[in-house]
Design goal:
6-stranded antiparallel beta sheet, 4 domains, peptidoglycan synthesis, Penicillin binding protein transpeptidase fold, protease, cell membrane, Beta-lactamase, Glycosyltr_51/Transpeptidase
């Protein structure tokens, strides 16, 4: 213990003698000075004077050839002057977002300290303490990440912003770019979106609701959560009264005012490949970490796999209501479709629904989770069976009496042949042979095959109904198109993707996509599967998908409803040429006895698929399959067999003719010898009697 005390005393003496306190303070001061210098340099090199112009930059979407395809130019860019914004809306925003806005020089020390101690208490960054100026700086000039480094950059830039613009100019820019949910960017469009009126005509109550939405535009969207939005409005009104912006009577009147919603806002992507652009946004946000704010305010350049010819053709199909079934009450049968290049995994076109488009709404091409029905059979059953040693002509059981621990599958056509070759089971989409075969090869092999095709399988899915598409979560047209692309691409699946590159506002490449490649099966197995799927369109359930001048392979699928044995809930068709895969789903968002599909998938969804491909294929190279359909192989074999029989008969005739000629020669020779003998005998008799 004494030795430890001695060591501590020695360290203290050395520390004091070496003036380490001063050195430590000097070093800390130097680090702080360098840090402040860095942030001051960042602020000095940022051109905040160009901020107004920067806020009006659109994000541009480019197609696969690098041509401009669409612009994400939200209506906030068509901003209004601050003189057109009623004072009570300006005050409402200031009251709830930054009540000291008119007093500070870009940042609020009290607000920052309050946020700092709140974050310390929480153990993580939960509060920002940002002023309106800082918020404008963040969305216009910085990333949205919550770090102390970003917060310091924000403060220095905010100070410079305050020196470059007046308070009214800062507030105007902020109000014209902030997001209010439901596609409403800027106060003018938000007012149209929620109240159906110009911003200059909104009431104090409506202004307070708009101001309240800014904090959490999705959670406080009155179309989605009116109760929460009203609660937030009331908080804003009380803040306005607290800071003397409105009187108590005005507050009470506004608190009692009934909010009436009336959406007269415009879709910011209307007429510009909206579903495809939605999917671009979703991929950029969910996969590459950008935020919607960044994309819609920074002027990015996003390069995609879109083929404008194919995208336009697909949209034209979806604008043709005559192709789609109708319901008695006018509810639209919904649909989603994808066109994909199997050689690159690039999504060339997609449509995510019918009817009015909602900005970043439900996209049935990419977000659907519907059971796939029989389109799963080639993936979960027949491909792993081919790999296990079966072939297209292998005989499978097709008996009505088959039962698997109480599970009794039934063929949709209610016909049973006892035994069928594999190609026939696929062509006619028979259920019993598929279940029997999955049972033979094992559910685990089927599940593993689906995983290789890029289709997730849950533990609940691992039963024999998997053979018929009985999955727990279901799949989207995008997923099914990617899975089938392996057949078109020699057994290799390339990860489906929309974005190829994202270039930031400064010209730096922020994202460059290199899609993952997966060997699903060997090329021979892919060719065998394609040969059978060609039959589906040649003479099977997909025969209505035939297009003159093109060879297509594919598979139908459907799921049944419980109340009508001839009715279906979901209908699918996935088909392909060597260089284009198309997948389409058809059904109602909510299925009931008034809203379901009547007729088979071959009669209803297949003609939609045919129209998709017929309009798209003329725009790409017409490439033929390396393999032939089973029908062609059988036909050629029959011709070969018939030729063989004729050739054998011909050979037999020739042999018989040759033999006949030989016998004729022998007989002729025999006749000659007989004459000689006869002549000799005559001579002998003549000599004897003479």
């Amino acid at each position: 213990m004494k030795s430890i005390t001695t060591i501590v005393e020695a360290i203290k003496r050395f520390w004091k003698k070496a003036h380490l306190n001063q050195i430590l303070i000097l070093m800390i001061s130097l680090v702080i000075l360098l840090g402040l210098g860095y942030f001051a340099w960042v602020a000095s090199t940022t051109n905040v004077e160009a901020l107004k112009q920067g806020l009006s930059q659109s994000t541009i979407i480019y197609d696969k050839d690098g041509d401009e395809a669409s612009k994400i130019s939200a209506n906030r860019m068509e901003g209004v002057s601050i003189d057109e914004v009623p004072e009570h809306l300006q005050e409402a925003i200031i009251a709830i977002e930054d009540h000291r806005f008119r007093e500070h020089n870009g940042f609020d020390v009290k607000g920052i300290m309050r946020a700092f101690f709140s974050n310390l208490k929480a153990g993580r960054i939960t509060a920002g303490g940002s002023t309106i100026t800082q918020q404008l700086t963040k969305v216009a000039l910085l990333s949205p990440e919550r770090t102390y480094k970003r917060k310091l950059e924000e403060i220095f830039l905010a100070v410079k912003l305050e020196k470059s613009f007046t308070k009214d100019e800062i507030l105007e820019m902020y109000m014209n770019q902030v997001f209010f949910g439901s596609g409403g960017w800027g106060v003018q469009n938000a007012s149209k979106t929620y109240f159906g009126k110009d911003v200059g005509n909104i009431t104090i109550s409506e202004a307070a609701m708009l101001a309240g939405i800014i904090n959490r535009p999705s959670a406080l969207d009155p179309y989605k959560n009116m109760e929460a939005s009203i609660e937030r409005r009331d908080i804003v009104l009380r803040q306005m009264e607290k800071y003397g912006m409105i009187t108590e009577d005005e507050m009470n009147q506004a608190l009692n005012e009934k909010i009436v919603l009336n959406n007269q806002g415009e879709d910011p992507l209307k007429g510009k490949y909206p579903y495809y652009v939605d999917a671009v946004l979703n991929e950029a946000i969910n996969k590459y970490g950008l935020t919607q704010d960044e994309i819609l305010t920074r002027g990015y350049k996003i390069y995609t796999q879109m083929d404008q010819n194919l995208q336009s053709s697909l949209e034209n199909v979806y604008n043709n209501d005559a192709l789609f079934p109708s319901s008695s009450d006018g509810t639209l049968a919904q649909s989603g479709a994808v066109l994909l290049d199997p050689k690159t995994g690039g999504i060339r076109g997609l449509v995510g629904g019918r009817g009015e488009h909602t900005f970043r709404g439900y996209n049935r091409a990419t977000q659907l989770t519907a059971q796939p029905g029989s389109v799963i059979k080639p993936l979960a059953v027949y491909t792993p069976a081919l790999e296990a040693g079966y072939n297209a002509y292998s005989i499978l059981k097709d008996e009505e009496s088959l039962s698997f621990d109480g599970y009794k599958p039934r063929n949709a056509n209610h016909q049973y042949a006892g035994e069928v070759p594999m190609y026939q089971a696929i062509e006619d989409s028979l259920n019993v042979p598929a279940v029997w075969l999955l049972n033979e090869i094992g559910i685990e092999k089927g599940s593993q095959a689906l995983e290789k095709f890029g289709l997730p399988v849950s533990d609940k899915d691992k039963n024999l109904s998997l053979a018929l598409g009985g999955t727990d979560t279901g799949y989207s047209p995008k997923q099914m198109a990617e899975a089938y692309s392996a057949f078109a691409n020699g057994g290799q699946r390339i990860q489906s993707h929309i974005i190829t590159k994202i270039v930031g506002p400064t010209g730096n490449v922020e994202v460059e996509v290199h899609p993952k490649k997966t060997r699903v099966m060997d090329a021979f197995t892919a060719e065998q599967m394609t040969a059978m799927l060609l039959n589906v369109i040649d003479s099977g359930t997909g025969s209505k998908a035939k297009i003159d001048g093109y060879k297509l392979a594919g598979k139908t699928g459907s799921t049944q409803v419980s109340f009508d044995e001839n009715g279906t809930k979901d209908q699918w068709f996935v088909g392909y040429t060597p260089n284009l895969v198309g997948a389409v789903w058809l059904g109602y968002d909510y299925t009931d006895q008034q809203h379901y599909l009547k007729g088979t998938s071959g009669d209803v969804v297949v003609p939609i698929f045919r129209s998709m491909m017929a309009n798209s294929l003329p725009h790409i190279e017409n490439e033929d399959f390396k393999t032939k359909s089973i029908n062609q192989n059988i036909e050629e074999q029959n011709k070969k067999d018939n030729r063989s029989i004729k050739e054998k008969l011909k050979d037999f005739d020739e042999k018989m003719t040759n033999e006949a000629e030989k016998w004729k020669d022998k007989m002729d020779k025999g006749k000659g010898k007989l004459r000689e003998m006869e002549e000799k005998l005559r001579k002998k008799l003549k000599q004897k009697f003479e």
